[in-house]
Design brief:
Elements lengths: L5 H12 L1 H12 L2 H17 L9 H26 L19 H17 L3 H12 L4 H8 L3 H23 L1
């Protein structure tokens, strides 16, 4: 068990002895019973764990100020959270306009996995041509010069990749 140094010990003793007075200070600011308990607990932890470099001349006044500050912080936090968090009266999350269903992400991940498998099955040069065409936006003539083949062959390679990827969509449609 850890020992409490004397300034903190005095503060904790005053806090425990005058808890009902501190509760009334917090309840005037916060208002709700359950939240008052949260504020008092935070204040207690602040007094126990906080840095107290010198002895406090008025321990009760110090405790009152800590409780008051915690209650005000709690109210400010509640206002900020209230402006950010949206909920419905029954506690469920409300429908968001333009939102996607929860399983949409799963389908997208499955599609990406299928695309990776399909691309991995292709020859490396064909994959490289596809990356230049779709990811870098190069023309077929530019790709032909980079790879050292005819533009017609580049066209056939791109067609082969698109055919392989079309199979991915068919798998997901099933």
């Amino acid at each position: 068990m850890t020992t409490v140094d004397s300034p903190k010990h005095a503060l904790v003793e005053v806090y425990l002895a005058r808890r009902s007075d501190l509760r009334s200070i917090a309840s005037k600011i916060v208002g709700r019973h359950g939240q008052v308990d949260d504020v008092l607990q935070d204040a207690y932890l602040k007094l126990v764990d906080g840095v107290c470099a010198r002895e406090v001349l008025n321990p009760f006044g110090y405790c009152c100020q800590v409780v008051r500050n915690m209650a005000l912080d709690y109210c400010r936090r509640r206002v900020v959270e209230g402006s950010c968090i949206v909920s419905s009266p029954d506690g469920d999350l409300p429908e968001v306009e333009g939102g996607k269903p929860a399983d949409a992400g799963i389908d997208e991940r499955r599609m990406l996995e299928r695309i990776e498998v399909a691309l991995a099955a292709l020859p490396p040069r064909t994959r490289f041509v596809f990356e230049l065409y779709r990811l870098e936006g190069r023309t077929q003539r530019e790709i032909a010069k980079i790879v050292g083949v005819s533009a017609t062959l580049v066209n056939f390679m791109i067609r082969d990749v698109m055919t392989a990827l079309a199979g991915c969509r068919d798998i997901l449609d099933d």
